Amino acid sequence: MVKDPRIPESLSWDTFLRGLWKENPVFVMLLGLCPVLAVTNTAINALAMGVATTFVLICSGILVSSLRFLIPKQVRIASYIIIIATFVTIADYAIQAISLDLYKALGAFIQLIVVNCIILGRAEVYASKNNIVNASVNALGMGVGFTFALLCLGVVREILGNGSLFGFDLFGPGFQPWGIFALPPGGFFVLAFWLFLFSAVQNRRQKVQHQKETLENAT
After folding, report:
1. Span 32-59, pLDDT tens digits
2. What is the mean pLDDT of each run of 10 residues along the chain (219 residues)?
3. 48, 85, 151, 203: which has the highest count of C-beta atoms within 10 A?
4. Could you give the CA distance from residue 35 to residue 51 in angstroms, rounded to a whole number?
5. Based on the number of CB atoms within 10 Å of its own CB, is 71 exposed (0-12), middle (13-18) or buried (19 or more)?
6. Is the dihedral of CA 164, 36, 103, 135 positive or negative?
7. From CA 205, how far away is CA 57, in angstroms rounded?
8. 93-118 residues labelled b (16+ CB within 10 A) or e (exposed)
9. Under a CB-based contact definition with an 8 Å cutoff, are residues 25 and 118 in contact?
């Protein structure tokens, strides 16, 4: 039976883990692809964007859940955007204070977290219908899943495109970098590879699960 989305769910491991696998924002739902392709030319950029997005996800989820009975339905989307924009501004100033070079590398994509479908979607679909604990745990899972996806691309692109990882040289001066992977088109190639791999693993798991259920029913 399909669960009524208006009924809050009980807290479980699935509340956190679904963002890593079943509902991974990038590899399953294909959300937030603009920053995924734009800032993952290095692993440090990918990690910084992932941490910033996770921070906004958790903080906005907690606040939306806290105010879910006070925000009128007619203005809920506008209210969510104001809440999200507040925490994006905090993250923006924090990154600028920590590292100006990193801030310049991420560019406008920090501010564009405001319109990231992952965050607004979590606020509308989950945080506004669940308590603070559930909302924060679910947001953390989604944030970790998004950061994991960014790192998957950032690590591959930096190793192949620059011959380094987190700024540390791996192969020495004799390595010839594949410049295409440091450019936006390289992001599409790496994303396609990870989508294929993720889909293959997921299909394999489903096949094994189906075979297991078939054997259990037969016995």
Report:
1. 888 888 899 999 999 999 999 999 999 9
2. 53 81 87 88 94 96 94 92 95 94 90 88 91 93 94 94 90 87 89 91 84 77
3. 48
4. 13
5. middle
6. negative
7. 29
8. eebeeeeeebbebbeebbeebbebeb
9. yes
CB 121 within 8 A of CB 31: yes
A 10 A CB-CB count for 216 gives 8
Neighbouring residues of 186: CB distance < 8 A, sequence distance ≥ 6: 41, 157, 160, 161, 178, 180
Can you tell me the distance from the alpha carbon of 147 to that of 51, in angstroms, rounded to the nearest whole number?
7
Domain positions in the chain:
13-166+178-218
Q: What pLDDT is stored for residue 2 in this prediction?
A: 39
State how far the Cα of 23 lies from the Cα of 1, in Å rounded to an integer. Answer: 20
- Cα-Cα end-to-end distance for the chain: 25
DSSP 8-state symbol, 168: E
Between β-strands 168-169 and 164-165, what pairing exists: parallel, antiparallel or unpaired? antiparallel
Cα–Cα dist 151/35, whole Å:
12
CB 13 within 8 A of CB 184: no
pTM, whole model, 2 decimals?
A: 0.87
